[in-house]
Amino acid sequence: MSKSRRQKEILSLVQSDQISSQLELSRRLRARGTNVTQATLSRDLRELNLVKTAQGYKLAELLNRSNGSHHHLRQVLSQLMTEVAAASNLVVVKTFPGNAPSVALSLDNLGWKDIVGTVAGDDTILVVTRDITQARAVKKRLMELRSP
Amino acid sequence: MSKSRRQKEILSLVQSDQISSQLELSRRLRARGTNVTQATLSRDLRELNLVKTAQGYKLAELLNRSNGSHHHLRQVLSQLMTEVAAASNLVVVKTFPGNAPSVALSLDNLGWKDIVGTVAGDDTILVVTRDITQARAVKKRLMELRSP
DNA sequence: CGCCGTCTCGCATATTTATACGCTGGAGTG
DNA sequence: CACTCCAGCGTATAAATATGCGAGACGGCG
């Protein structure tokens, strides 16, 4: 069985089931008639850009969609935000240097309907809402997020 | 030093430098005055949702952006696409069952300017282009991608 | 105060992953 | 054909990661 065929099987296995070790993957493949050692799988996984997560191996390209568990977003947010202020219909979020882009992405992913969009610099994010009231509401919720 | 302070340091370290093992992370933290064992880091990394990639530990939420190396996208595409056909201004891409969403995402990420957008079902993707000519061109390039 | 219950963490170790090395088979070349 | 290369892989093992267990810290609560 060719390398490419094997890698296809790996991708489809990994996407249908939760595989959490290379040994397990090796067993599953054997059950399907493909016989490889863990060493080869280690190499395959790197080539396919699969990463190990708490929920098994995942395609790195897909991690955002499949897995946007809010818990982690909040975890990240609470760790990286340093200040939150409202100004007119904007909320200004300060972060540790360099982390604004990550935090902004997390904010986007929260899916809050009163967040119209975000713009991130290096350590500052502008969160755009529709009006002053929404800006205050967002600020409030972000503050609560910081110290649960 | 509190757990939360330590986790903040981990996030910022991991985002500024390339850290590829927990031992290395432990050393870097020690240099900054934070002293922890590998075991604790293993737990921290899971809580922070950091995954190990060939380029070091990365925030799972960010993997798309930081790391969209086209090589891997193409690898994924070539593995999962089974058929490509053009129809009017659309390109119809067939994939292995269940893989259409992944492939569609990869197609989006290619950044081809003649791809207006994609819609994915379970094993079929509609790729929308502006006209017949673009559809043919996209089809051609996708076919080449499949067998290099 | 004394007695839980809960967190957090280190230690030791089990488990998992990566890799150095060497073999093999097929492609390309003269 | 004979020869060289090299991708691909297994074996053995090194390296890295996860975890069972218990200790200490801290906050209620009677």
Architecture overview:
The structure is a homodimer of 148-residue chains. The first copy, chain A, is of the alpha+beta class. Chain A folds into 2 domains: 3-48; 64-146, Gyrase A, domain 2, CATH 3.30.1360.40. Chain A is built from 7 helices and 6 strands. In chain A, helix 5 packs antiparallel against helix 6 (100-110). Chain A is elongated. The model of chain A has no long low-confidence stretch (mean pLDDT 80). The interface between A and B is large, with 40 and 40 residues.
**Range of strand content of chain A:** 15-25%
Q: What global shape of chain A is seen?
A: elongated
Instruction: Tell me the name of the CATH class of the largest domain in chain A.
Output: Alpha Beta
CATH architecture of the largest domain in chain A: 2-Layer Sandwich
Biggest contact:
A-B, 40 and 40 residues
Helix count of chain A equals: 7
H and E order of chain A: HHHEEHHEEHEEH
Unreliable runs of chain A? none
Give the overall pLDDT of chain A as a whole number. Answer: 80
Write down the CATH topology of the largest domain in chain A: Gyrase A, domain 2
Structural class of chain A: alpha+beta
Gyration radius of chain A, in Å: 21 Å
User: What number of structural domains do the residues of chain A give?
Assistant: 2
Question: In brief, what are we looking at here?
Answer:
Chain A is built from seven helices and six strands, in the order αααββααββαββα. Chain A is of the alpha+beta class and 148 residues long.
